[in-house]
Write a structure and sequence with these properties.
Elements lengths: L2 E3 L3 E6 L6 H16 L6 H16 L4 H8 L3 H10 L24 H16 L7 H10 L9
Antiparallel strand pairs: 1-2
Helix pairs in contact: 2-3, 5-6
Length: 149
């Protein structure tokens, strides 16, 4: 992913491409297009690129030319070819990396109590703030830290 410095401008682009000027130019153009369309985090532009890559591959275009045209890696192209599902409209969307369930997550009540204890410890300039200090304060309040599974 390119990094654009507002201080140094175009000369301060770094990426994983190993300094290939052609790929750097393509990435710079793609970055500028995304900024013009509403910011670097423009999901619509990313989804369009994914759909375009799959459309070209299905039409028989070689993967190397798709890579060059979109400024992407071979791995990226094959990733989206693998994820392509013609019956699902949202196949090109981003997937969350967060787990669906977190079995060791504390209850909302315990979380609120921990935040209150931490705020109280933060207010005291001489108090230590951290997991051990919060656990100590909770034990003084009679709270047992049992994580249910």
């Amino acid at each position: 992913m390119p990094f654009r410095s507002s201080v140094y401008g175009r000369d301060a682009i770094t990426s994983w491409s190993g300094g290939n000027p052609y790929r750097e130019r393509l990435k710079w153009q793609r970055l500028n297009e995304n900024v013009e369309q509403g910011g670097e985090g423009n999901v619509d532009a990313e989804e369009r690129a994914r759909r375009e890559a799959v459309r070209r591959a299905m039409a028989g275009e070689p993967v190397a030319s798709i890579m060059a045209a979109l400024g992407r890696s071979r791995r990226w192209v094959f990733k989206w070819l693998t994820r392509y599902q013609p019956k699902r409209a949202d196949w090109a969307g981003s997937r969350s990396l967060a787990p669906a369930v977190s079995p060791t997550r504390a209850s909302a009540e315990l979380e609120a109590l921990v935040l209150k204890v931490r705020a109280r410890l933060d207010a005291d300039q001489w108090a230590q703030v951290g997991a051990a200090a919060i656990a100590w304060e909770l034990s003084k309040l009679g709270v047992r830290l049992v994580i249910e599974r």
